[in-house]
Amino acid sequence: MPDKTITKAPAVDGAVPPVASTELAEGETKAREASLMKDAFHDLVRRPLFIVAALVILALLVIAVAPGLFTSRSPFSDGFCNLQHSLEKPGSGHAFGYDLQGCDIYTRTVWGTRNSIIVGVVTSVLTTLVGGVLGIIAGLRGGWLDSVLSRVTEVFFAIPLLIGALLVMAIFQAGNVWTVALVMAAVGWPQVYRIMRGAVIANKHNDYVTAAKALGAGTFRIAFRHVLPNALAPVIVITTMNLGVYIAAEAALSYLGVGVQSPEISWGLMISDAQDRFLTSPHALLFPSAALSITVLAFIMLGDAVRDALDPKLR
């Protein structure tokens, strides 16, 4: 009786099992992402614009976290303001002079950094989370959900950021840094949504996404392993640049009287209080205005540098 031996068909040269193919695709995606970030970092550190902006922002962050390192006085302590020093010009012991209420402008400017940074960072994080998540969902799912979200976004886009925040803040009349950040995030998320949605749609038809779908990868895995890493670059750029925009918007709201309210400190409030006495006491307006301008400019410069580094077309 002949010996029947079951033999396996020889593997085709070059064939890769499905599991290995998935791991290989993910490895290539991670390698491509790591290479992009590495190239972007090396490009950034060679840009004087980025170095200057990063140093200024680092200094601002240190001031915001530990203002006591830069001034021994607290604007919230008893006896901080003295009307005898009202509108005194800069001099020894008070480098920025005094405001109308006899408060040291240097100390108030230093402590005002914290509220500006908090508003900028919190608003940027919230807009990125809300707009980014909705953008990923709309871009991947498409169909009626994409249409509904896009129509809602268009309604929000019809409302300018500053006017929408001004209207809401005037209605609720609860001015503090957290309220301002929440209101601006509620009005500002559509910009991030539109950018994220467009980036997801542009990347979801790439070959590596199609291969992942063919190998049975789920929607969640495709979104966070293949699509999101390649769609983050434009969102990072707009988020970085928007930090300065939100800081300026907070100052504008406080200047108009609907943002941060006393006894909290805001550069916008300081500018509002000093505007009527600019000709006789320009120092009361000059220093908070300079602090606001330098902060906004630093974040815009940082965003420009990051954009140039992450966009291969601009290299």
From TrEMBL:
Keywords: Cell membrane, Membrane, Transmembrane, Transmembrane helix, Transport. The keyword Transmembrane applies. It is a multi-pass membrane protein. GO terms for biological process: transmembrane transport. GO terms for cellular component: plasma membrane. Residues 113-303 form the ABC transmembrane type-1 domain. CDD domains: TM_PBP2. PROSITE patterns: ABC_TM1 (PS50928). Pfam families: BPD_transp_1. It is found in: Cell membrane. The keyword Transmembrane applies. InterPro entries: BP-dependent_transpt_permease (IPR050366), MetI-like (IPR000515), MetI-like_sf (IPR035906). The chain crosses the membrane at residues 49-70, 117-140, 152-172, 231-249, 285-306. Its main location: membrane. Belongs to the binding-protein-dependent transport system permease family. PANTHER family: ABC TRANSPORTER PERMEASE PROTEIN (PTHR43386:SF6), OLIGOPEPTIDE TRANSPORT SYSTEM PERMEASE PROTEIN APPC (PTHR43386). This is Peptide ABC transporter permease. It comes from Streptomyces capitiformicae.
